[in-house]
Amino acid sequence: MVLLNLLVKPGWVVLENVVQDRIGHELFGTFTAVLTLATIVAAVSDLGITQLSTKRLAASASYFTDFFPTLLPLRAGLGISFMGLTVGLGWVLGYRDHWLVLLGLTAAGLLFTQYTQFLRGVLQAHQRFNTDAVLSVLERVLLLGLVLGLLPLGLTLDRYVAVRVVAGLFTLLLLAGLIRRLYGRVVMRLRPRWRQARQLLLESLPLAFITLVYGLNERIDMLMLERLVSASEASYYAAAYRWVDAVMMYLWTVLPLFFARFARATGQRAEQQELLWFGQRVVTVPLLLVVAFGLFRGELLFFQFGNSSAAEIARMTQCLQILFLNVLVHAFFAIYSTLLTSTDHEKPVSWLVTASIALNVGLNFLLMPRYGALAGAANTTLCAVFVSVGYVWLVPRRTGVALPLRMLGRLALAFGGLCAGWYGLRTYAGLPWWLETALAAALLLALVFALGVVRVAEVRAALQQKGQEPGIGA
């Protein structure tokens, strides 16, 4: 199942590039803005109820029967309100007629997906992790199949939006039927108690604020590009950001593991420091090669855009290169945010991200009309630097954990050496891209050991420890 998850994400990125190329940058750019608007509002519509209910269900079995009859209609009512708010905001922003219909359908698809995530909390709380894992990728796999089926028939934007809605609705109905069969009709009974609803909303609102902040921070650029500049510029940015989102999946897979360990070690500074120094290497090193590939061979990631001009591909590549610098910043400093939020310092992190959003929006208004998608990419990267400086300042003051400054320096030197070597290969060697990348990877490995980022003794000790585990090396 883990392998399926890893395959679905890059598979979807490649296929969505094909969809974008078939539909065209002008239409897809406007659709991207519409989807972004719906996604931002959807982040608020849940009001943190999904996270809260999953946490409470895992902690208490009685929560299941006591609160679920209230949770179901409350979550449905919030979803309907979300639909109205999304379409209303779309009208205020200037979308009319057919685009308002597409906005409503897109919001409905997101609503189905969100309600599915909410109901999956029941499975997670009852430790049905295998079933939950299947459902976590079912909608995306179904959507992949439907879009592939449309390619030979003729892919249009209307059909693309329609299959997104169908995939979300099918997954939701399947999950609802499964929960009813596993836990009985009583689970799906609608019996709201307004005192319970008020209590739930009060408890979940802080989670909703965090979700809104992070949603705005990630998505606002594409909406502003389409409204302030042009749909085509929004499309170029979306094509580049899609790859950034795929690469960042590595961070969002690894960092939760450190989140749990940091949380368990709360109050134990020495253990947290050891975890931080170890995690710094685990998080950063693999992304150094990915970022360098984007900087030197980024154009290869847009091989699906057969209908785009050389100028359009160059524009997307430039956006990608700037946004991959944003990935580099996260590779170095995202683990500090994980340490802070895992040790009950969510509030300063949230305010820091909020300040970053304000800075980003201000820079967008100032620079986007002149520089378009490149301004959006540059502003995103600058804001990543801003919050990272804040993390570095907060960590020793709030947690007492020392920063691995020497390790950061060694990692920076390794990246500098990798880029210098790759530049030499690209400029003078004239090799095929795959051989060039393989040699660059070998260079990074050599630099990692030569600079002491990883020591041979550490690798040997790890291998010996693994060999001593039961069932290994016997």
TrEMBL record:
<feature type="transmembrane region" description="Helical">
    <location>
        <begin position="315"/>
        <end position="336"/>
    </location>
</feature>
<dbReference type="InterPro" id="IPR050833">
    <property type="entry name" value="Poly_Biosynth_Transport"/>
</dbReference>
<keyword id="KW-1133">Transmembrane helix</keyword>
<feature type="transmembrane region" description="Helical">
    <location>
        <begin position="407"/>
        <end position="425"/>
    </location>
</feature>
<feature type="transmembrane region" description="Helical">
    <location>
        <begin position="99"/>
        <end position="116"/>
    </location>
</feature>
<dbReference type="Pfam" id="PF01943">
    <property type="entry name" value="Polysacc_synt"/>
</dbReference>
<keyword id="KW-0472">Membrane</keyword>
<feature type="transmembrane region" description="Helical">
    <location>
        <begin position="275"/>
        <end position="295"/>
    </location>
</feature>
<feature type="transmembrane region" description="Helical">
    <location>
        <begin position="236"/>
        <end position="263"/>
    </location>
</feature>
<protein>
    <submittedName>
        <fullName>Membrane protein involved in the export of O-antigen and teichoic acid</fullName>
    </submittedName>
</protein>
<dbReference type="InterPro" id="IPR002797">
    <property type="entry name" value="Polysacc_synth"/>
</dbReference>
<feature type="transmembrane region" description="Helical">
    <location>
        <begin position="161"/>
        <end position="179"/>
    </location>
</feature>
<feature type="transmembrane region" description="Helical">
    <location>
        <begin position="348"/>
        <end position="367"/>
    </location>
</feature>
<feature type="transmembrane region" description="Helical">
    <location>
        <begin position="373"/>
        <end position="395"/>
    </location>
</feature>
<feature type="transmembrane region" description="Helical">
    <location>
        <begin position="437"/>
        <end position="457"/>
    </location>
</feature>
<keyword id="KW-0812">Transmembrane</keyword>
<dbReference type="GO" id="GO:0005886">
    <property type="term" value="C:plasma membrane"/>
</dbReference>
<feature type="transmembrane region" description="Helical">
    <location>
        <begin position="137"/>
        <end position="155"/>
    </location>
</feature>
<feature type="transmembrane region" description="Helical">
    <location>
        <begin position="70"/>
        <end position="93"/>
    </location>
</feature>
<feature type="transmembrane region" description="Helical">
    <location>
        <begin position="200"/>
        <end position="216"/>
    </location>
</feature>
<feature type="transmembrane region" description="Helical">
    <location>
        <begin position="27"/>
        <end position="49"/>
    </location>
</feature>
<keyword id="KW-1003">Cell membrane</keyword>
